[in-house]
Amino acid sequence: MRSDEVKKGYDRAPHRSLFRATGLKDDDFGKPFIGVANSFIEIIPGHFFLNKVAEIIKEEIRANGCVPFEFNTIGVDDGIAMGHDGMLFSLPSRELIANSIETVMNAHKLDAMIAIPNCDKIVPGMIMGAIRVNVPTVFVSGGPMAKGHTKDGVPIDLATAFEAVGKFEKGDMTEEELTDIECNACPSGGSCSGMFTANSMNTLMEAMGIALPGNGTILALTPEREELYRKAARRVCEIAKDNESREKFKLSNILNENAVRNAFAVDMAMGGSSNTVLHMLAIAKEAGVNFELSDINAISKKVSHIAKISPSLSTVHMEDINKAGGVNAVMKEMTKRGDDILIDNLTVSGESLYEKIADAYIKDTNIIHTIDNPYSNVGGLAILYGNLAEQGAVIKTAGITGARALTGKAVCFDGQPEAIAGILGGKVKAGDVVVIRYEGPKGGPGMQEMLAPTSLIMGMGLGDKVALITDGRFSGATRGASIGHVSPEAAEGGMIGLLKDGDEIHIDVDQYILEVHLSDEEIAKRKAEFVPLKKSLTSKWLGQYRALVTNASSGAVLKTDL
Fold first, then answer.
1. Which residues are known to be catalytic?
2. 52 touches 142 (CB < 8 A)
3. How much is the CA Rg of the chain, to the nearest whole Å?
């Protein structure tokens, strides 16, 4: 066992002495040591109960002949950090989480790990850290939140609350109605109830084979979810106690190129958050997988979009997907379009992917469509290219509410605060293309989510009448013609930084085009005169991050070769 390095031999007497101080007994030193990587934090609705989840998991680990050691990562709630400079710290927190996992697991030579993420950057951060450690790892998330309801019984969620602000600003909603939504949109603990970033990543863990079935869809704080926690704990112990299994189920044997491609395919079928592109690119790089942004369109062309979930369809939430058969049912249906849609691969359950989904089926075709009745014959995400995005830009096609091709005049804002003020001030009109720049990984720094501007646009009735492009990113709760991750970003001299009000921008989603109608001579002139805006910073961490981060087309990972 890997842990023998810190617990075996006469020269490890001091080490064992320290372990004994934590309560270990003689017979514990012959057992596998399991890291329980928790992300308990009281301010995040999807995490405030994870201390109790860890107790359940540790109890099960002890009962199955292993020794648990719980440790914690940090977390940022994107919803609470939204709309102010706190959001600058969200994406950078992913790197801190990855580093903390790598640090604790390798410093103490733990044999295996069970990771308990749930929301936002915590999921990809834990995965990235686990890849570096490369021991058997089972992921089990806290679980999704139940959907809310207004006093009239209408299903609502966090996206409803953000869009309600725009409706209230416009005068289309009373204060009483706004308060009703505020008090009922998030009725329980768990990751926000739609197919936002957290639940997108939690479902993709099933597709990658690093979590057990139900991880993405079984509601938090239910007996069914508790049983999933216990199953995950039992499974990691089964692996850790067997020499052959410890080698077979190293994370690198599961999270390989096949797993990455399967994750993107499921993402397309379920219309996941555009943030999954950013995180899966980063995960692929950590895993040493040769996967490029341009590969995504090729996958999208082969995958039918068969599940629409809030925010793309406001009446459907994760609990509905669970009742309709879950992620396994989605994957089983996907394979009916062709053998190459999903690639059979080892999963942490011990089964191959195809074995895992063999008996799955759709229980409600109104919720999960068949491939004969898809929402679209192509996937729910697309990568656009052109002189405005030479290295690519991302759009969640599943969330488009208006035209898929349009040409409009640019209305430019240098940062999200300026954009919010401009939208509220009536600067944006039907037919415009809103441009929000200097919000990329380096320019922000931190690549803020643009949920406040997009929600205002939707709430003010402009959602199907304008488009928005940014070098920042979007919340999984965003819908509409919202194009993010524009690369190169403004801060590194990208074309988005050279735009002026009134420039004609052309978008064609089905042709994967994002371009500005300017002559080569005009572009060259602007480039020669361009000096990127560099925001002043007081945060030392954000200063370090800005110096090291790459752009969105690379997953916004940090440079390691300086």
1. 475
2. no
3. 23
Q: What is the DSSP letter of 87?
A: G
Q: For residue 276, give both structure tokens.
A: 């999954």
Token pair, residue 431, equals 């037919």
Token pair for 235: 């499974």
C-alpha span between 384 and 48 (Å, rounded): 38
CATH topology of domain 387-554: Glucose Oxidase; domain 1 (3.50.30)
Secondary structure letter of residue 372 according to DSSP: T
- Provide, rounded to the nearest whole percent, the portion of the chain with pLDDT above 90: 87
**Run of H or E residues at 52:** helix 50-63
* pTM of the predicted model as reported, rounded to 2 decimal places: 0.95
pLDDT, average across residues 282-291? 96
Short-list 90, 204, 183, CA closest to 139:
204
> pLDDT-derived band of residue 354, with 50, 70 and 90 as boundaries?
very high
Q: For 517, how many CA atoms within 13 A lie in the half-sphere containing its CB?
A: 11
Query: Cis link prior to 311 (omega < 30° from 0)?
Result: yes
Structure tokens at 534: 């560099």
**For strand 67-72 and strand 33-38, is the pairing parallel, antiparallel, or unpaired?**
parallel
Whether residue 97 has pLDDT greater than 90:
yes
What is the DSSP code string of 441-482?
TTTTTS--B-HHHHHHHHHTT-TTT-EEEESSB--TT--SSE
Question: What is the DSSP pairing of strand 405-414 with strand 504-508?
Answer: antiparallel
- Class of residue 10 by CB neighbours under 10 A (exposed 0-12, middle 13-18, buried 19+): exposed
- Residue pair 170/456 in contact by the 8 Å Cβ criterion: no
Cα–Cα distance for residue pair 364/261, rounded to 1 Å: 27
Using CA atoms, how far apart are residues 261 and 253, in angstroms rounded to an integer? 15
Range(s) of the chain covered by CATH 3.50.30.80: 387-554
